[in-house]
Amino acid sequence: MGSDKLISMRDALDNPFSPGSDTIPEVWAGRTEQLSDWRDVVRPRRLAGLPERGRTILGEPGLGKSTLVRRIAQEATRSGDWVTPQLRIPAGADPLKLVADAVLKLAADAGLPASREKRISDTIARVQAVAVSGISLTIRGADGLEPYSALTQLLIEVGRAAIARRDVIALIHIDEIQNITDERALSQLLIALGDALTHEVEVDVPGGARVNRSLPIAVYLTGLPDFEDMAGARKGATFARRFKTTTLSAIDDEDLAEALQVFVLEGWEVSDGNGGTARIRMEPDAAARVVDICRGEPFLFQLAGEQAWYAGVGATITAEEVLRGWRGAQREATAHVERILERLPARERLLLQAMAELPAEARTLTRIAEGMGLAKVTDAGPTSQRLDTVRGIIDRGKPYSFRHRAVEAYLSSDWPKV
């Protein structure tokens, strides 16, 4: 086979790696716990009418929060569920408008606009008004529901329709949730979604009895860790009762290696340019290089794979090609980690720097506080707690360690240089 044929095999059209795009990458790595939670807990419990909290997936940029829930939404769609598109909230936008429009589409999927019941038609009309006016819609002196109540009522009707179908649930995904800076709008949105999640309806069961059941509705919220302050701290126990929060961290090297095993053992199938197929393989050392370079970051994993693909023309990706491709991506990898650090408060950056300058075995809170120039160890406690429980960047074990391994590598070594 000539080299010209090989060039056509490893081109942009066949590259299965997708760094930073809105598509679900073909080479999927990790997040099995969250995917299993959807398949084995959220969906079956909601279908069965059992109560189950919504899910909030938070994490620093590049950890694949939105991609994870897009993968879940894809699986839901394949199961026949009614799924909203990814509702990405722009900074300063009115979230009630976007969510109202999406709920109207769910209602259409459920066939509600064709209903002759006045209750349903009135609710749809009210939500249509919310989709136009959002949080600014007022009812003072007028008949009708507050925006959040109208949304809740229509979600309940969607849930009733799903119960009638028996085998579907309605899935709502709201992304960039931290961009909702209007506290009133955030409160109304969380109440509307939470009320729908906890609402119960009475249904008939075999034997003639009537029992209460929850609606087959699932809600996923994704965003930066800052949302924990906006919702968890300000809304307190009510939010925690209605939403379960997961803060993502780096993917284990074993999961990354498993994702690349198809390249090592079988090869990745591509077009050969003549109507047939060929396979692009990866040397074991090349796969190990990709895993080592990306430090558990989904974005960097996709970036390293993409650049290794473009670094050569042969049917086998070599370790040298991985390194060559990564050299061209170093600036982007640097910018990625620097963006994470730049958005942290100065005191949190100072703690991470002090921690990175210590040998791994010496990373105790006492030594870290000394490195920060603090008089008392307890002065570093709240900062370290926030970096652990809210941001998921460190782990306050004995000794402390980095959960965000790209941040650690950037602060403590020449990485991303290779």
What can you see in these coordinates?
The structure is a single chain. With about 425 residues, the protein is α/β, with parallel strands linked by helices. Helices cover about 50% and strands about 15% of the residues. The longest helix is centred in the C-terminal third of the chain and has 24 residues, at about 320-340. It starts with a helix and ends in a 6-residue tail after the last helix. The relative contact order is 0.13.
In short:
Helices cover 52% and strands 13% of the residues. The protein contains 17 helices and 13 strands. Helix 4 (95-109) runs parallel beside helix 6 (147-165) and helix 11 (284-294) runs parallel beside helix 13.
Terminus-to-terminus distance: 33 Å
For the record, the CATH class of the largest domain is Alpha Beta
| Structural class by SSE content | alpha/beta
Can you count the beta strands?
13
**Backbone CA Rg:** 25 Å
Shape: globular
The secondary-structure element order is: HHEHEEHHHEHEEEHHEHEEHHEHHHHEEH
Estimate what percentage of residues fall within beta strands.
5-15%
Mean pLDDT level: 90
Instruction: Kindly report the name of the CATH homologous superfamily of the largest domain.
Output: P-loop containing nucleotide triphosphate hydrolases
The biggest beta sheet reads:
6 strands, parallel
Can you name the CATH architecture of the largest domain?
Answer: 3-Layer(aba) Sandwich
Could you list the spans in which at least 5 consecutive residues all have pLDDT below 50? 1-7
Would you tell me which CATH topology of the largest domain applies?
A: Rossmann fold
